Amino acid sequence: MGCAGSRAKKEEPVKKIRKPKPWKHSEPITRAQLVQMRDEFWDTAPHYGGQEEIWDALRAAAEGDLTLAQAIIDSAGIIVQNPDLTICYDERGAKYELPKYVLSEPSNLIREN
User: Fold this and answer.
1) Averaged confidence pLDDT in the chain
2) Contact predicate 58/88, CB 8 Å
3) Using CA atoms, how far apart are residues 49 and 100, in angstroms rounded to an integer?
4) pLDDT-based confidence at 20, cuts 50/70/90?
5) Where is the DC-UbP/UBTD2 N-terminal domain (predicted)?
6) Is-contact 90 79, C-beta < 8 A?
7) What is the DSSP string of the chain?
8) What distance in Å separates the CA atoms of residue 24 and residue 2, rounded to the nearest whole number?
9) Does residue 105 have a pLDDT over 50?
């Protein structure tokens, strides 16, 4: 039995993640340029602070489909502020900001033949 003043703690609802809204790069870019931008971001991301394991989980979520991404986010204990994963926190309160270019393709991506 609990204390008369105690209440069951309400758990916050889990935010379902989604792909970012369509976006446009400042100039048309090729897939190779997009991949290079993504690689550079992920190579330097741990230097922005936070835990390397959380950065790894965010990368896996960004590169997976939505169902897999949701499972990764939930299992890593990542707190999602924006459902498109652009702003997240770990359980210790460290902030993780992801640019849209690591989460989806721009509308002006040059299709190579």
Assistant:
1) 89
2) yes
3) 19
4) confident
5) 15-112
6) yes
7) ---TT--PPPPPPPPPP-PPPP---SS-EEHHHHHHHHHHHHHHGGGGSS-HHHHHHHHHHHHS-HHHHHHHHHHHTPEESSTTSSEEE-TT--EEE--GGGTS--TTEEPP-
8) 55
9) yes
Mention every residue, 6+ apart, whose C-beta is less than 8 A from residue 104.
Answer: 19, 20, 22, 23
- Contact present, 82 and 103 (Cβ < 8 Å): no
Q: Characterize the bridge pairing of strands 79-80 and 29-30.
A: unpaired
Predicted confidence at residue 28, as pLDDT, reads 95
The overall pTM is greater than 0.90: no
- Say yes or no to pLDDT of 72 above 70: yes
Q: How is the chain split into domains, by residue range?
A: 29-110
The β-bridge partners of 95 are 89
- Average pLDDT score over residue span 15-39: 92
Residue 41 neighbours by CB under 8 Å, 6+ apart: 99, 101, 102
Structure tokens at 37: 């931008």
